[in-house]
């Protein structure tokens, strides 16, 4: 007489849920014995019964074999397995998952390496040394490079820990002066609102706030100010006066004779020409810029293998070779490979991260699209509309340059069911949720996910109009609803091939 199956926790995670579903299917089929099922589908009794044990996620093949042995709908079971696979990969991100033997991923995927990830950051020793050397000689440095090459990571996880000491890191967003005030205020221990008012009056007072926060520190200690995604100053900040003030504040902090800050800007190289709009910035750039390129094959190898080793795992040689070959010639592929590598980590076999796991995730070409599609496929109709409307708003159109991500206040995405939709994309690391903001994890998503690409190109004109209107509405509200300031723009008309319907993207 076979032992009865261990009861499953009805509040269990995705793996348990799948197991419970398989058991129900078997019960509905008249509870055939595992021996009988095994004979039917040519899998062992042990493999089939383990699939319904809820201890770990069975492979897709075994799940389908189980379902077939119980006359289940194979398409339906493939869908359920994929959902469980996706959710359990996400759950493995939970630090508590380590208790279940699921080591936390040493690969951040699309996300940037942060200062606290320094121990997992490899392959950039040469560049980090160069940045530190330059920063010793001068108080100002601009780091340029194409999107996805690894600027933010090298600055945050490489340079910041190497320099040490007090540091503020922020991105300019739509209101760079406010961002600067918030961070400097925290450093100086003063209220942010008051500091912002002061900086508006005189941006060069920023250097005062820097000194104020350093009072107790030894005289040789400086504040390191890192402005990442500096291109947002041009692409996202719509107010030229604020832009000029921001530049003036940054330069005052590091250029005044008793300035105690070292300022590092990281910016996408395709925005380089815009620096010329600010003569002082242009002058500061002379002899103070570093252009970052892709990693060499040796560096890439290190970046791929070392993080796994730190977690007691290894990366299969064939996988290392594949990634090195894919990324060495096109550094823009780095975020795609990073994402696929993270997925491969979740699919590792024992302590080995395998090429098969990487390919199952879609490799460089498909991993992001696949993850994004899987999240999208898991949404119901209403949530899909919401996802579409939200995601397209997270992109700033590049006129003449590539589209950029756009960080938006959560309030701007007032859409039905938005919280749950954002959470699902955030769990998959496709977007990043800040305290009160939402942003795409990496521009690579814009390029690599055909569905988003399609939405953006179909709706571009309508979206542009929609955005102009949103911005006009916002500034009208902030101008206390002055009728004289109402949107007149370039003479109001619907976009050429558009209609009112395209303003709000159709489902
Ligand atoms: N040294 C590295 N090793 C492994 N992955 C890296 C490294 N540097 C960057 N990445 C990955 O590459 C992608 C792009 O990095 P990021 O720093 O955001 O680039 P950028 O700021 O130039 O757009 C991210 O997915 C990041 O995790
Ligand atoms: Mg960056």
In short:
The chain is of the alpha/beta class.
Sum up the overall morphology in one term. elongated
User: How much of the sequence is in beta strands?
Assistant: 5-15%
Share of helix, binned: 40-55%
Question: Do you know the CATH topology of the largest domain?
Answer: Rossmann fold
Number of domains: 3
Instruction: Please name the fourth-level CATH homologous superfamily of the largest domain.
Output: P-loop containing nucleotide triphosphate hydrolases
What composes the largest sheet? 5 strands, parallel
Q: Whole-number radius of gyration?
A: 26 Å
> Cα distance, first to last residue?
56 Å
**CATH A-level architecture of the largest domain:** 3-Layer(aba) Sandwich
Average pLDDT works out at 85
Uncertain residue ranges: 94-101, 485-507
**Helix segment tally:** 23
The CATH class of the largest domain turns out to be Alpha Beta
Unique ligands = adenosine-5'-diphosphate, magnesium ion
The number of strands is 12
What structural class should be given to the helix and strand makeup?
A: alpha/beta
Strands ordered across the widest β-sheet: 2-3-4-1-5
Folded structure, characterized:
The protein is 52% helix and 8% strand. The chain is an alpha/beta fold and 507 residues long. The protein folds into three domains: 14-91, 434 Repressor (Amino-terminal Domain) (Orthogonal Bundle); 124-291, Rossmann fold (3-Layer(aba) Sandwich), CATH 3.40.50.300; 378-503, no CATH class. The strands form four sheets. The protein has a five-stranded parallel sheet with strand order 2-3-4-1-5, with helices on both faces. Strands 10-12-11 form a three-stranded antiparallel sheet. The longest helix is centred in the C-terminal third of the chain and has 29 residues, at 450-478. It is elongated. The N and C termini lie far apart (56 Å). The structure holds adenosine-5'-diphosphate and magnesium ion (MG). Magnesium ion binds next to α7. Residues 21-77 form the HTH cro/C1-type domain.
